[in-house]
Amino acid sequence: MHGMKASLHNKNILLGVCGGIAAYKAAELVRRLQDAGASIRVVMTPGATKFITPLTFQALSGHPVHTSLLDTEAEAAMGHIELARWADLILIAPATANSIARLASGRADELLSAICLASSSKIAIAPAMNHVMWMAETTQKNVQQLQKSGVKVFGPASGSQACGDVGPGRLLEIDELITSCTQLFSTGELQGIKIMITAGPTYEPIDPVRFIGNRSSGQMGFAIARAAIEQGAVVSLITGPVHLETPEHSKRTDVDTALQMHQAVMNDIKEQDIFIATAAVADYRPAKPLPQKIKKTDDELSITLTPNPDILKEVAALDSPPFTLGFAAETQNLKDYALQKLKNKKLHMIAANLVAHNLENKDEQDTGFNSEYNALHVFWSNGEATLERCRKMQLARQLITLLAKKYDEITT
Ligand code: C5P
């Protein structure tokens, strides 16, 4: 279950293909980069299109291929400046002697070099050319200059060449290219780890227009999703009704009720390495929601409630459960209740926070459910940590760092 540590999940890679015989290998490279989790857009130099067609790359990447700086249609779809900003990495493979020379001299008269010039993302080149061209003093000087300005150089490998010669100048094997790309990013504490996060409130219908809900805004769960994605995690976010933007690179599922949330979680939980339950799931739901709107009378009205499944408890009780982090929002006896929950639900960790209960005195109590701020007291079987009151995003980052450490301890 332990996810692959090194991967390219959540990464946008712009693949620049230049005009050399190794261009055909770039098609396989697209597939393999996608398998590693990356999103791919392809830019081809005019020379590359003589070796392999843009259609091949369009079909593989699922996006239009960009081949010219002055193509109005392609510029309208995603302009070269936008492409430059979109990319986390620009990988030029194969990189020809000519494209290396262009790059080194800062040219912008052709699409790929213009994008490189306009980009502040990482750039890597995988040279492929005849070995005499590779060893040529000017090529070597250009490569050294690029390296000095931070461009990574992958390869080339030595061996037999398309021209019949033997020597350095072959495109690095695809496996090695993937590993090299991965190494550029493998700093995230949760690289490639699959995390499911529940967030927000649930709405339990009384009749078609009324429901029982709670004040959870979903902010903490969404902040945790963002912090996990920053660390390279593959995040599924299952959320009740909230007014929040979907974190980039997350897979979001929207639900209303506890039963729907339960279903959505169980559908996918076997795939997950970590489960974080921030949702304020309603403990009870109206036993029989009425099919029509309830009419007002002068009589008292009672609604029979029936317990909802405890999603977190059920996940933690699975045969091989993921690492579980629960939340305990309390208005009193924080530590006692949190520790009880840790034990009773058999969790790996629990994060407890005092929710504002004195609505009169908002300044002092401004933490928890509907606030930008929060503070957490985190417990695990043999330790605890206090995360002081700060903005939820900062708090989420601290929590993710702590969680990654504990997760590492139990899985390695
Ligand atoms: O027992 P209590 O509801 O206070 O536990 C809170 C923790 O359990 C939270 O992490 C919450 O997301 C989770 N929970 C759940 N399903 C429920 C109730 C709570 O996943 N039905």
List the helices and strands and how they pair.
Elements: E1 12-17, H1 25-35, E2 39-44, H2 54-61, H3 72-77, H4 80-86, E3 89-95, H5 97-104, H6 111-118, E4 122-127, H7 131-135, H8 137-148, E5 152-153, E6 157-160, E7 166-170, H9 174-185, E8 194-199, E9 204-205, E10 211-212, H10 219-230, E11 234-239, E12 251-254, H11 258-268, E13 274-277, E14 284-286, E15 305-307, H12 311-316, E16 323-330, H13 334-344, E17 349-354, H14 362-365, E18 373-380, E19 383-391, H15 392-411
Helix pairs in contact: 1-2, 1-9, 4-6, 5-8, 10-15
This protein binds cytidine-5'-monophosphate (C5P).
Describe the fold and architecture:
The chain is an alpha/beta fold and about 400 residues long. The protein has two domains: about 10-185, Rossmann fold, CATH 3.40.50.1950; about 195-290 and about 300-410, Rossmann fold (3-Layer(aba) Sandwich), CATH 3.40.50.10300. Helices cover about 35% and strands about 25% of the residues. The protein has 15 helices and 19 strands. Helix 1 packs parallel to helix 2, helix 4 crosses helix 6 (about 110-120) and helix 10 (about 220-230) packs across helix 15. It is elongated and about 90 Å long. The structure holds cytidine-5'-monophosphate. Cytidine-5'-monophosphate binds near residues 281 and 326. The site of cytidine-5'-monophosphate has 16 residues, from helix 12 and strand 16.
Cofactors and ligands: cytidine-5'-monophosphate
Number of helices: 15
Under CATH, the topology of the largest domain is which?
Rossmann fold
Overall pLDDT, averaged? 91
Strand content: 15-25%
Helix content: 25-40%
Measured between the Cα atoms of the first and last residue, the distance is: 12 Å
Indicate the structural class: alpha/beta
User: What's the oligomerization state?
Assistant: single chain
- CATH-scheme architecture of the largest domain: 3-Layer(aba) Sandwich
Q: How many domains comprise the coordinates?
A: 2
Major sheet: size, sense and barrel closure? 8 strands, mixed
Unreliable stretches, pLDDT < 50, 5 or more residues? 1-6, 358-364
CATH level 1 class label of the largest domain: Alpha Beta
Q: What general outline do the C-alpha atoms trace? A: elongated
